Every structure is written in C-alpha cells, then in structure tokens.
C-alpha cells in the first residue's frame, strides 16, 4: 500500500515515517536559493527575527506549508482540518559545533492534546556527517520530563533536553535527499549532531496540528492550511507580497504573542514540564 494512508499507518505505529516524497529537487534548490538571497541581505545569516513563522512574510513559504504534497499525508494522520502551528528554517553552517539535544517538540506547545506532527523538508542532503536528525522510533507513547543544562552548543534556545541520552541501538538517522521529507509525531524523541562536513545542511521544520485543539493561556496564532476553522486559534494571514508593510506589521504582532507564549513562566504543557523556544526538530 502506498500514498498518504500508508504513511499514516507507519507514523502511527512507530512515530516517524521517512523518506517521503515532498517537492521536487529543483523546487528544493529554488527555495534554498531564495533563502540564500535573503541571507545575503543580512550579512550571510538568516535573521533572528525570521526565526519563527517566516511564512507570514514570504508568499512562497505560505504556499509551501499549504501544498497538498505536504498536507495530504498529514491529513491522513490528523484528520481533514489542519493548522500550521509553526514553520522555521533549520540550518547548520559547514564545520560547526551546533547540535540539537534529544527532546520532544511538544514541550512548548501547550496544547490540549498531543495531536500534531512535524514535517521536516530537506533542502540539502541530510547525512550523519552533516548532522542529520536522528529519531527514536516508538518513543511517542508518553511525554517525558525535560531539563535545561544550558550547553552553549545546543541549538535549542532554552537548552531543553531529556535527562538521559537514548541507547545508540534505539536511534535511527533520518537520511533525506533535497525535496524529500520526514514526518514525526510531536512526542517522538529526536535530536541531531554537529555538521562536520564542508557544506551547509538546511531544511524546513513545519509543525501541523489538528484544527480542533485548544491551547493554554493566551496561546499563539496559527495558519489554516486545510479544511475548516474550528475557531480555537486566531488565524494568520497570507502575505500579499514580499516586503509588504502590512505583512511585516502582522508578523510583529504575531511574534510578540509567540515570545510571550513560549517563554511563559511555569507554563502547563501537553508534553513535558518545561516550555521551549525557537527551533527544534534537528
């Protein structure tokens, strides 16, 4: 059996499915070229203020997160009504020490139920040498406590990680070619090592949730990407064009709300005891 329903069965069983067809290699190269053009305008780095929800500023990213090639298999897992809770660029420069500690994404979602997944879309090849994401299949059955040892090389901004590293025999590297993607449950334990290669490693982490979920506190906004709105999240707006002043103002408001949510003190979450900020998912 092939297609999104086979993906759903695989992901429901093990908590992860890969490699999956996403976009074409040519489309992945075009996306990376757009990203590098933006980086070139900001000293060769992706600006920090674009660390979360860049789809609110670039129509081509909004169109990506709503692309049926990505949302079809997610809908087979979560149902026909989907929100994009977050999208962010994950990059590791060549020969860099940064790594992502072993963690579960849901530690900072604050959702009523852990019904969500992360799509990791590769823009470059992902290999063990360049610090690809690794996962622990079947680890999505329960939420784990996280602590914050604050290693400066840990790319998770609040430094969260599970207390004990998984047994190496239980971990699987997620090997992808440009345009391919993986899907993992928001409770699947995952992390990634440093990039020891001579080339960048880049991908997009797109986090989808079932549209009927509710969020603790003020919560954050979300983009309706498929089906109908259940009225549980303030909805985001597709930008009309790049560098659109209205889109920049909308992103500003959304980001202030985002920062308040993910850094809230003592937040109760659906999947752990500590909130987390910024990018996860390797």
TrEMBL record:
Keyword terms, alphabetized: Dioxygenase, Oxidoreductase
Cofactor: Fe(2+)
InterPro entries xrefs: Phytyl_CoA_dOase-like
Source organism superkingdom: Bacteria
Gene Ontology molecular function: dioxygenase activity
UniProt xrefs under PANTHER family: ECTOINE DIOXYGENASE (PTHR20883:SF48), PHYTANOYL-COA DIOXYGENASE DOMAIN CONTAINING 1 (PTHR20883)
Protein name: Phytanoyl-CoA dioxygenase family protein
